[in-house]
Amino acid sequence: MRIALLLLLIALAAPAQLKKRTEAPPQQPAGPMVDEDEDLLPQTDYAFNPIQAKKELKVGDFYKKKDNQRAAAVRYLEATRWNPSYAEAFWKLAEMRDEMGQNAEALDAYKRFVQLSENDGKAEHARKRIAEIEATMASPPVSAGADSAGP
After folding, report:
1. pTM, whole model, 2 decimals?
2. Contact 109, 93 (CB under 8 A)
3. All residues at 6 or more sequence positions from 140 whose CB lies less than 8 Å from its CB, including other chains
């Protein structure tokens, strides 16, 4: 008896479920293109908040230890937005973007780090990476067949 009642309830609910599945997916809002990680960040107005910046940096370090580079980069980016003069956040953001192969973003973060801490020991390494990244971005990509020139 219970099984029959359960089947009856399922049969009555099935058309409503089918109707939900046939609806078109929601349209994406038309607007300017944003950085691929922007969609992961909540839309907020940033005011200077060094405490929140340190929290974001710690969460980014946690994600880095868990080998989640994208999440770590998002948190480091958040830290730079809460405190635009937080050199350590720019350093970690630059390293993470560099590891991810996002050269343009890494270059921006390295440059900002050098502006904020010119006398830091890491600044020399950052200057070298800036030069290397700019050199790779300026040179055209080498094609696979260019190395082997046959007779």
Report:
1. 0.65
2. yes
3. none
